[in-house]
Design a protein that fits this description.
Distance between the termini of chain A: 53 Å
Strand content of chain A: 5-15%
Shape of chain A: globular
Largest interface: A-B, 84 and 84 residues
Radius of gyration of chain A: 22 Å
Low-confidence stretches of chain A: none
Number of strands of chain A: 12
Number of helices of chain A: 13
Order of helices and strands of chain A: HHEHHEHEHEHEHEEEHHHEHEEEH
Helix content of chain A: 25-40%
Oligomer: homodimer
Strand order of the largest sheet of chain A: 2-8-7-6-5-3-4
Structural class of chain A: alpha/beta
Chain lengths: ~400, ~400
Amino acid sequence: MSLEISKRGKNMPASPIRKLTPLADDAKRRGVKVYHLNIGQPDIETPLAMRQRLAAVPNVLAYSPSAGTHEFVAALIGYYESLGLEVTADQVIATTGGSEAILFALLACADEGGEVVLPEPFYTNYSSFAAIAGLTLAPVTTRGDDGFHLPARALFEKALSSRTRAVILCNPNNPTGTVYRPDEVQMVAEVCRDRGLFLIVDEVYRELVYDGRKPASALSLRGFDENVVVVDSLSKRYSACGIRLGALVSRNRALIDAALRMAQGRLSPPGLAQIAGAGMTDLGPEYAAGVTREYEGRRNLLYDALCAIPDVFVRKPEGAFYFVARLPVEDGEAFARFLLEEYALDGATVMVAPAEGFYATPGLGRNEVRIAYVLNQQDLRAAVRVLAGGLAAYRAKESERLGGPSRRLVS
Amino acid sequence: MSLEISKRGKNMPASPIRKLTPLADDAKRRGVKVYHLNIGQPDIETPLAMRQRLAAVPNVLAYSPSAGTHEFVAALIGYYESLGLEVTADQVIATTGGSEAILFALLACADEGGEVVLPEPFYTNYSSFAAIAGLTLAPVTTRGDDGFHLPARALFEKALSSRTRAVILCNPNNPTGTVYRPDEVQMVAEVCRDRGLFLIVDEVYRELVYDGRKPASALSLRGFDENVVVVDSLSKRYSACGIRLGALVSRNRALIDAALRMAQGRLSPPGLAQIAGAGMTDLGPEYAAGVTREYEGRRNLLYDALCAIPDVFVRKPEGAFYFVARLPVEDGEAFARFLLEEYALDGATVMVAPAEGFYATPGLGRNEVRIAYVLNQQDLRAAVRVLAGGLAAYRAKESERLGGPSRRLVS
């Protein structure tokens, strides 16, 4: 007798960022070098100040308090203080990456059958956590032509329904690289306050803002303490994705109390990560400034290089380390597969993330891909050269398949 | 306007193991030494073979594959092989502790509104994960007088309903220390097969079996590959609770595939933990044998000491490192509070976990506490002396309060 798994197990979305990984593995087995622009895994070193703390770990690697060790939570609070944000220990739960903070936030904000509004395209894994929590994601579409900025309030509010319990903003945004202006964040906060909604703000790219922008946080908003729930992570800020350490921060006591009980259920956040993470106290503001400068240089390089590829459309992103690029192809996933399965330039190819999976509205994003600038400038230059070559080869092939050399697939 | 959190957030259970922690902290601030018998945090050192791997971590602490690093999964498979269990890499998902394996298993086995049957008393955090997954726990009551062994099949089946999707067995059992006999496990497996249910077996105490018993696993059952889902963890086996590393193991492909998609949603299991955990390959069978011998000695000591306290009832547990003891008190939680708030012997007191929270049936377990033998024998001896003194003092106080020196609170 074959045993049926749950419907939610069957419907759990596969990661659109990782689902082409087997094709990349095949390419590597064929000896092809693969430039990974598909995943937000930077090549920048995790600070030595963190890694060296692992040289002396306790002899018993014991449970930590469910909300995090005193040492790590104090380091986090010191970090917020350095940004002018007043956060107390009872407003913080250390979590297993930003991922767990998102899950706890969703579970605490909404019951099964509820709805969460968010701009699309959005970080695809929100879908996974919404599926676990039994929630529907209701998108507010944003467009590359507007730099993926938010529509006016009246349009934004159209996405709300009687089932809406929260809004998610990812700021700076993954996948678009958009940094919402203060008036945009204020607008969404006011919608939340007026309509009795939580505002979950995913700020894991907080420092990565360019062109003279300063790191901002929804924790600095005045008058929205009940609404605001911030998701944080050490992954991107300290190039420490693998340690899985983040935080949930809110001044809403009932919400933090519920999240703490969830945290007790899973006992502790990762302990070795907290030992390493506490090393953030040894890093001055020059650390973040240096990292931001590095990414800004990469963004500039990639922006110029992408603009130089015929019929590719991008706006210059303001933060994070992603572009959503519109390509002259019908199906971004087919193109991404082509790059991995059929194309190589001087023995190398490139992996990008098809953007369709970042949209909830069917059909949107089919001709877009997300590109992460997580390689050094030399590799990035080489990767874009491969991308440009691959795109030309793909268009030639498609054009031939469709029976005419001049047919434009996308106007 | 006060913003209401979700019903599930409000109803999320607090940990009965950790909820008295503030009282223990107060006692420590008053200068009282607290022997912690409330939580399964052993004092045994995490193996050096694991800790020393942290001396050389990569410069970039990157995401690992969602199902775990090749190195760690290979180490796990080698470990299963050493027990005669054939497990392949595509049957394993490395998880953030056994905790996450439980959550993934529940989500994949049952949809919201479903029911999971399990013997009570049970590991309290199953309640937290059931609450997250929107599931009800339906208990099969087991009794101290039977050593908390399972009832006969007919009685066991009475707990099943049309909504039942899975059975959870924790074997060796937390909190009772019971090791189910092969015929008991077989009976439950047959019930699951006959009724189309998943059998989730939590084996995180697998090695800790005494009196000559051998470590066993439901993975060795023949004919139940579709049903069996094993939850595993390094926490207890290697005294590495804080690293948060475990695994979900099943030969049911659809289930593992669903769990993998959940795992992709949260990106990776903790990376530093996997580096340390891979050190298990350096530990021969003598490691587990030594740890088991140590716990067996503690069990023997504690059993004799508890039996010597008037009116305390325990059966000798067969595995894990817990006792559920029936005490001559009406309310185990009031007694546990008394120990922390009012009692000390030679400047020390003891913390135990009230057992009521380990039962789903209201009223059961009120006069029971869970005692973990996670201290060395000298401390354990001292702790039981405090427990005995505290119990006498509490009974005297209660007896006075109730107006008669001879009144027995519990027969």
